[in-house]
Write a structure and sequence with these properties.
The protein is an alpha/beta fold and about 450 residues long. It has helices at about 45-50, 90-105, 110-125, 135-145, 170-180, 200-215, 225-235, 240-245, 265-275, 280-285, 295-300, 320-335, 345-350, 350-355, 390-395, 425-440, and strands at about 10-20, 30, 30-35, 40-45, 55-65, 70, 125-135, 150-155, 190-195, 220-225, 255-260, 275-280, 305, 375-380, 405-410, 410-415, 420. Helix 13 crosses helix 15 (about 390-395). The chain is globular and about 70 Å long. The structure holds zinc ion (ZN).
C-alpha cells in the first residue's frame, strides 16, 4: 500500500477485494488500484482514492482484482487442433496424430489464426502473459503484440526440418533474428525453445546453452515428461536427460523445465542447485497419462514451480484458473495431505512464480506499485459464488476462468465485460470453422 505521487491518474479501479499476491496472503477491502503511464501507481484506501482525478473510473462492486495470470507453457497455435485426437498416450498421440497433421497444415496462416484464437481464450480466462514454444514464432510474436498481449516466445530448435526451419543451425539463426526484431518491444520477449532432450542432439543443445547465457535469454524445454522418456535415455546412453542437460550447461536460472514428472532425488537436487524452474502442466500430464510432477518435493527443495496449460490439443482448454484448481487438488492427492498447496500458494504459483520462471518478476506477477499494470477482475457476485467467506478459496476452487470480466495489460484495457477490445470474436469463430473444415477433411 502506498500513496500516489500525483493527484491525477489514468485509471482508478474500485473492486470489492484486491488480492495483490505480494505480500503473500493479503486481501484488501475498501481499497482502490490506480494506474498511471501503464504502471501500477498505487493501492490505496478507497476514500482517499475518491479524491484523485482520473481519466477513467471503473466500479467493480462484486469483483476481486488480482494480478493477471501467467501461463508459463503452451503451444498457442495448437488451439486449431483442440479435440483433434484424444484418449491416446503421448507417444502415439504425437507420432500418429499431431505430427502428421502439423506436417500438412502448419504455416503462417495456421499460426496467425491459431494464436489469435488462443489469445482470445486466454484473455477471457484471466491470462495476461503467456510463454509459448511453436513454429513461426515470428508470426505468433506479431499477433500477440498487435493484440496488446504480453508473451514470451521460445523459438523452437530441433535436429530435423519443419515448415519453419531446415536444421538446428537454421532454427537458431532465425530465432536470433527474431530476438533482434523485438528487442524494443515492451510486451514481447524472445527465448530459446530446444524442444526436448530426445529431439535435440548434444551439439545444438550446447550451442543453445552458450548463446542463452551470453544473451541472458530464457530457455524452455520439455523434459522428463514421462517415465518412458527417462528409461529410453538410460537404455540408449546410460544418462538421465536432466543429467545430460546439466553436463551440456543447459540448466541455469533462466531455464524453464516443462513437465518434470519423472524426478528422483538427484534430479530435484540438480534443479535446486542450478536455480532452474519447473513448469507444471497437470491437465496435460493427466490426459496423456504422463505421470505426476512432485510439486511438494520441488517446493521443499526450493525449486520455483510455475504453471502452464500446455497446448489445447492435449488439455483441451487454455483456462489457467482451471489448471490452478487441478494443480491444487492434485498436489493434495499426490501428497496424501489436504493441506498441501493451499489456495494462496496455488494462486502465487499461477502469478508471481510464473513471472519468476519467465525472468519477469521485477515487471509483473503481483499488484505492487511500479510494476506493469497487468490486472484482472473476476466477478464473484453470481449465485454460484454465494455465500462467500474466503475470496481466494473461491477463486482457486470455484469456476473462475469463466467469470473473468476485465483485463488490463500494461494499463491498457483489453477485456471489458468479457469482450476483447482488440480481437473480433465473430471473425475469429469464422476462421476457426474454416480450419476445422480443412483439417477434418484432411
Ligand atoms: Zn508442451
Amino acid at each position: 500500500m502506498n500513496s500516489p505521487t500525483a493527484d491525477s491518474v489514468d485509471t482508478l479501479i474500485f473492486p470489492r477485494w484486491i488480492i495483490p499476491v505480494a505480500p503473500a496472503g493479503q486481501v484488501l477491502e475498501q481499497h482502490a488500484l490506480a494506474i498511471k503511464g501503464g504502471r501500477i501507481e498505487a493501492l490505496l484506501p478507497a476514500q482517499q482514492a475518491r479524491r484523485l482525478r482520473a481519466e477513467r473510473v471503473v466500479e467493480l462492486p462484486d469483483h476481486a482484482l488480482l494480478p493477471g495470470l501467467v501461463n508459463a507453457h503452451g503451444h498457442a497455435a495448437m488451439t486449431l487442433l483442440r479435440g483433434y485426437a484424444d484418449d491416446v498416450p503421448l507417444h502415439t498421440w504425437l507420432q500418429e496424430h499431431i505430427w502428421p497433421a502439423e506436417g500438412r497444415f502448419v504455416g503462417e496462416d495456421f499460426v496467425r489464426d491459431g494464436v489469435s484464437l488462443a489469445i482470445a481464450e486466454m484473455l477471457r480466462s484471466g491470462v495476461t502473459t503467456f510463454a509459448d514454444m511453436y513454429f513461426f514464432p515470428d508470426i505468433a510474436a506479431q499477433v500477440a503484440q498487435d493484440a496488446g498481449m504480453r508473451a514470451q516466445m521460445h523459438f523452437p530448435v530441433f535436429d530435423f526440418p519443419s515448415a519453419w526451419g531446415r536444421d538446428a543451425d537454421d532454427y537458431i539463426h532465425k530465432g536470433l533474428q527474431l530476438r533482434d526484431d523485438f528487442k524494443h518491444s515492451s510486451l514481447i520477449t524472445i527465448g530459446f525453445g530446444p524442444h526436448a532432450p530426445y529431439t535435440v542432439s548434444d551439439g545444438p543443445m550446447s550451442r543453445v546453452a552458450t548463446l542463452a547465457a551470453e544473451l541472458d535469454a530464457s530457455i524452455q524445454i520439455h523434459v522428463h515428461e514421462t517415465r518412458q522418456e527417462v528409461e529410453q535415455a538410460l537404455r540408449d546412453t546410460g544418462e538421465r536427460p536432466l543429467a545430460r542437460l546439466h553436463r551440456l550447461g543447459l540448466l541455469g536460472p533462466r531455464t524453464q523445465c516443462v513437465h518434470a514428472t519423472e524426478l528422483d532425488a538427484a534430479d530435484i537436487e540438480l534443479l535446486a542447485q542450478n536455480n532452474s524452474h519447473v513448469v507444471h502442466c497437470p491437465e496435460s500430464n493427466l490426459k496423456l497419462a504422463s505421470g505426476f510432477c512432485p510439486v511438494g518435493k520441488l517446493l521443499e527443495a526450493g525449486v520455483n514451480v510455475a504453471l502452464g496449460t500446455d497446448g489445447a490439443a492435449s488439455n483441451n482448454d487454455l483456462d489457467l484458473f482451471g489448471e490452478l484448481r487441478t494443480a491444487a487438488l492434485l498436489a493434495k492427492a499426490v501428497a496424501g495431505d489436504a493441506s498441501a498447496l493451499p489456495a494462496h500458494a496455488a494462486l502465487a504459483m499461477a502469478t508471481l512464480s510464473g513471472a519468476r520462471a519467465l525472468g519477469l518478476e521485477e515487471r509483473i506477477g503481483s499488484l505492487e506499485p511500479g510494476k506493469a499494470a497487468d490486472v484482472i477482475a473476476v466477478d464473484l457476485g453470481d449465485v454460484e459464488s454465494q455465500p462467500l467467506y474466503h475470496p481466494v478459496s473461491q477463486l482457486v476452487y470455484g469456476n473462475s476462468g469463466s467469470r473473468v470480466s476485465h483485463s488490463w495489460i500494461g494499463g491498457r484495457l483489453l477485456l471489458e465485460n468479457r469482450a476483447p477490445t482488440t480481437i473480433n470474436l465473430h471473425e475469429l469463430r469464422e476462421r476457426a470453422r474454416h480450419w476445422q473444415h480443412r483439417i477434418a477433411n484432411g
